[in-house]
Amino acid sequence: MNNLKNKTAFITGGSKGIGFGIAQALINQGVNVAITSRSLESAEKAAKQLTTTDAKALGLEADVRNLKDQEEAIKKTVAEFGQVDFVIANAGLGHFANITDLTPTQWNETIDTNLTGVFYTVKSSLEELKKSEGYFITISSLAGTNFFPQGTAYNASKFGLTGFSQALMLDVREYGISVSTIMPGSVSTHFNGNDPEEKKEAEAWKIQIEDIGEIVVDLFKMNKRTLPSKIEVRPSRPDKK
Q1: Is 154 tagged catalytic?
Q2: Which one of 3.40.50.720, 3.40.640.10, 3.40.190.10, 3.40.50.10860 gives the CATH number of domain 8-233?
């Protein structure tokens, strides 16, 4: 198994939710992490919570919808830690509405964040990952293969992200870069205005953010000759309503 200590991870949307859970799992393995958020205050607050005696977290302000933001965040990560070994494209949002009510603004924000934002993250980090022969992970969703009512924007973004990730894997493996997409179902996070702290007992059946973090650690520790390129993750039991 690969030793992750002193490696560096770059995580978009890492100040809360799945991104924070992944950052926590990696910090516990001795990995230095850079986490981004559109709010510098949120990023720095999360980084302070994450930093340990064995690894450091760096909080950065960056909007994945802005290519220059992503390029600058990668530069700051390299300046701080000297390298980038792992990139986790996690930042995402969801607007759910019938097509009659879905606005162009909601459509564009969903596609620009969930899909174009990942493209910008790849373009910004690719040269560093070539140097480290690193690992790129995208956080898609079961909504990337399963459609549902009021999901036109979100389904389109996640179906696109799943396809993008698999094609990316074929493009970059010649450089020794691994690519996986993780496709979670119901996860207990702040997504779409949810409050997991307030509903902790009611959401115990859901996937927890630390579970996704554990999957990421396992992927990074796997022998490089083997690549789980697409991973679907579901709660093991349904909600008992």
Answers
A1: yes
A2: 3.40.50.720
